[in-house]
Design a protein that fits this description.
CATH topology of the largest domain: Aminopeptidase
Radius of gyration: 22 Å
Structural class: alpha/beta
Helix content: 25-40%
Number of strands: 12
CATH class of the largest domain: Alpha Beta
Strand content: 15-25%
Number of helices: 11
């Protein structure tokens, strides 16, 4: 290669805008539990909704200092937000992580300590009461019977089950929950009440790894004093933010050792699949996203409860699965109804330009 050409290439590499090589930001949805008419627990002079929001805003402030992270909030002030709205916002944003913050409470003033919940079907009685409490906000929503279709927070047998494609998301959720609990214990000397799986609607309805953090018991006088203090809120926000950063580094670092990094063959296959899909359906605009998984599944009907015309893409370490491909919203709404009838209750509509 002539020296002049080499020189031009070298200058191009030096001067080309950095954003051409940048990756999309890591999106975190911070969900402050309760809000507005839903006060949550009220004990020892504290309202759960206020503590949760204060801690969430502090977490967001810390994370926003990282240029590779985009922070979104389910609420940033004292307003009532339906569980369905919280999940929809995270799904439509294609968030990488959903972090919900709450405070615990008990009829007894004795219990204390922090715990973190992930979606699951456990029926351990102690934590099931927490699940009922966090799900019961549904009853405060005007159209809850229509929106949640028979879901009864007070009846364990009617709690929704895990989605078909949730296994890998659950593993990632447990990783984050473990980071949080370990830091609470080792850095803040908090009582570690562990990581638990419970049937929580808002975690089941979100299509990404997620956790629900119970910061501590406001029913315990000593713990309530800590939860309501500047020191307590700052410390908890800091370790939660650190845990999210650790999760990002371990799951989204892009390094060869990263357990969620794409292999070369997967990248090539994904590109081929996307190209073929565009060529085949270039005049169609809408699909129904029915699930997400780190596991690659064949798109035959037997894997998707009989649904035909299922496609997939590979994005940020996960396979995303879509049903149908039509050119109008009205047609796609019919597909959405079919998917939900098959049991994909958290399915939602996306347009082709939203699918990267």
């Amino acid at each position: 290669m002539p020296n002049k050409v080499k020189a031009y290439l070298y200058l191009f590499v030096l001067l080309v805008p950095g954003f051409l090589f940048s990756q999309s930001k890591f999106k975190v949805v911070l969900d402050a539990g309760h809000g507005g008419k839903d006060h949550g627990a009220i004990k020892n002079g504290l309202r759960e909704k206020e503590v949760a929001l204060d801690v969430v805003l502090r977490i967001g402030e810390i994370l926003s200092e990282n240029k590779d992270i985009e922070v979104l909030y389910s609420r940033k002030k004292d307003v009532f937000v339906e569980l369905r709205e919280r999940a929809d916002k995270a799904n439509k944003a294609k968030a990488d992580l959903f972090v919900s913050v709450h405070c615990n409470s008990n009829n007894s003033s004795t219990p204390y300590g922090s715990l973190t919940l992930v979606m699951g079907l456990s029926r351990k009685s102690t934590n099931l009461e927490i699940a009922k409490t966090e799900n019961s906000v549904i009853f405060q929503e005007a159209n809850y019977k229509k929106n949640y279709k028979g879901f009864n927070p007070n009846n364990p047998e009617t709690l929704i089950g895990l989605k078909l494609l949730q296994e890998e998301s659950l593993k990632s959720s447990i990783d984050l929950a473990s980071f949080i609990q370990n830091k609470f214990e080792k850095k803040l000397n908090r009582k570690n009440k562990g990581v638990h799986q419970q049937p929580l609607w808002v975690l089941d309805a979100t299509c990404m790894p997620g956790v629900l953090i119970e910061l501590g018991f406001i029913s315990n006088k000593k713990e309530a004093k800590y939860l309501g203090s500047e020191q307590g809120k700052n410390e908890m926000a800091r370790v939660i933010a650190q845990s999210i950063l650790q999760y990002k580094e371990e799951h989204f670092s892009g390094s060869v050792s990263d357990s969620r990094a794409e292999t070369v063959s997967e990248k090539q296959e994904t590109k081929s699949e996307e190209t073929a899909s565009v060529q085949k359906t270039k005049n169609k605009n809408y699909k129904v996203q029915i699930g997400t998984s780190k596991t690659k599944l064949d798109t035959n009907p037997s894997n998707f409860k009989g649904l035909k015309n299922v496609s997939r893409i590979f994005e940020k370490g996960y396979y995303k699965y879509f049903y149908g491909n039509v050119d109008t919203i009205s047609d796609c709404e019919k597909l959405l109804a079919e998917a939900k009838k098959k049991g994909y209750d958290t399915a939602f509509i996306v347009s082709d330009n939203e699918i990267k």
